[in-house]
Amino acid sequence: MEPQRKQLLLPASDPTNTGNWVLNQDISDEFSGDSLDRSKWFVQGENGDYYIWKGRAPSQFAPHNVYVEGGMLKITSRWEPDYSFAVGEGHEGNFYGVHEGQKVPVTTGAVVSKKRFLNGYMEVRSKAADAAMTSSFWAIGYQQELDIYEQMGRPTLKGDVDIKGNTLKASVHDWQPPAVRPTRKFGHKTDLSFNVAEEFHVYGAEWGEDYLKFYLDGKLVHEVTQEEVGEHWVLTNPMEIWLDSEIFVWQGLPTEDQLPATYEIDYVRVWQKPESNLLDRAFFGFEGPILYEQENRPLNLVPENSENNKYQKFWLIDEQSAQSLQRVRNERFAKGTWSLKYTGGKNTKATAIAPENSVNLLNGNYRLSAKIWVDPYSTADKVSISLNSTDTPIAEFDLQSLARGEWIKVYKEFDYPQSLSGDFMKISIPDQENGSGVLYIDDIAIEKE
């Protein structure tokens, strides 16, 4: 089957666009030029740079295996005895170019999107490599991983292997520390009526705030909700897309006669729905860091990393405030799995401060909203939210008037008098002498009036 072009770029899962999808041009790519667009894609190994790892040993990523040809992205795996493999390095007990003392000189390739995105529908049209090499379409973000598929056109092990030539396998991994294997928490595996290396097919995944759907050629093949998954739901932060090939030693090693073999991707497309919230939804929902994608992503930034750097920054809660204020997971949350928890009785003012340049508004009228859950016995009387550019809080919420024991959405209109770069938000809960009880804050948003 030859590559197929679509004039109107709409999801195969929603060809009439009833969902009002909008194409994300920063990540989507038709691979129609003579070379790969480096403004969108990081190539593993290019200029000697590797992001996170050099591949799953004994195979190693090599940049010459990634190229655009005939309107497609191609990732080729090769048997290259003369390649200079990384010496003394590897992954999970294996070394690059060597397995159990025997040479396995296999080079392969990988690309990673330079931008991340939060929720949407992602789709590729692809054909797997005809070898015992994976052809994978996956995504990672802060403490999370979504494998839309891991395919293998011709595994060399026989019998009941995990991935066969007609297997469609998807997985979700939890990378929260200590990230003890197995990190796979849920997913699905489907037997197909075809071999994935024989023809092109369209594979897609719709990732919502509280659900996940997988599609094949526009038809739904599996779906799951956050409610069904429970505490193992981790897909709450922006993710970047990976396209790569690897050796899975537990599936068998590729043989010299199988290579070269090429994983072909006709296009990558990501659609999202319009969003009225002017804040970073994940960060102001306390799920994870805010990203500064104008900065270079650190090459050692593994998903479980919670350190502040130029690329990612977290809420600042000083030592004194931390006595009564902290981010918590899977306690009470309005969306996602995290929220900001306040515990009274410490007789101290508690503040959480967002990083500089995390709020960017033009002058105008806005509405701030937040969701608050107050314990029936809490004596906390108010929550204040301010911006660095203002002398007084833009919102003060009277907690005494709120219903107890349930999530309540509160609102406050405010006027932003000037356009100011580098602004940020501060959440304050005043001193409470002999205070008691608990409250949670989640899902802070700012919308234009």
Percent range of helical residues: under 10%
CATH architecture of the largest domain: Sandwich
Low-confidence stretches: none
* Computed structural class: mainly beta
Find the CATH topology of the largest domain: Jelly Rolls
Query: What is the global morphology?
Result: elongated
What is the CATH class designation of the largest domain? Mainly Beta
Alpha carbon gap, first and last residue: 51 Å
**Secondary structure tally: strands:** 32
Q: Number of folding domains?
A: 2
Outline the biggest β-sheet. Answer: 10 strands, mixed
Instruction: Return Rg in Å.
Output: 24 Å
Mean pLDDT: 93
| Strand percentage | 35-45%
Number of helices: 1
Quick overview of this protein structure:
By secondary structure, this protein is mainly β. The protein has one helix at residues 226-229; strands spanning 22-23, 41-43, 60-61, 66-69, 72-79, 90-91, 94-95, 98-99, 102-103, 106-108, 110-113, 120-127, 134-141, 144-152, 167-174, 184-191, 201-207, 211-216, 219-225, 239-244, 261-272, 290-291, 312-313, 325-329, 338-343, 350-353, 364-374, 382-387, 395-398, 407-416, 425-429, 438-448.
Structure commentary:
Pfam families: Glyco_hydro_16 (PF00722). Keywords: Hydrolase. Belongs to the glycosyl hydrolase 16 family. The strands form seven sheets. Strands 1, 3, 4, 5, 10, 12, 17, 18, 19 and 21 form a ten-stranded mixed sheet that branches. The termini are far apart. The relative contact order is 0.14. Strand 18 (211-216) and strand 19 (219-225) form a beta hairpin. The longest helix is centred in the middle third of the chain and has 4 residues, at 226-229. This protein has two domains: 22-272, Jelly Rolls; 283-448, Jelly Rolls (Sandwich), CATH 2.60.120.260. The radius of gyration is 24 Å and the shape is elongated. It has one helix and 32 strands. The protein has one helix at 226-229; strands at 22-23, 41-43, 60-61, 66-69, 72-79, 90-91, 94-95, 98-99, 102-103, 106-108, 110-113, 120-127, 134-141, 144-152, 167-174, 184-191, 201-207, 211-216, 219-225, 239-244, 261-272, 290-291, 312-313, 325-329, 338-343, 350-353, 364-374, 382-387, 395-398, 407-416, 425-429, 438-448. The protein is 1% helix and 40% strand. The chain is mainly beta and 449 residues long.
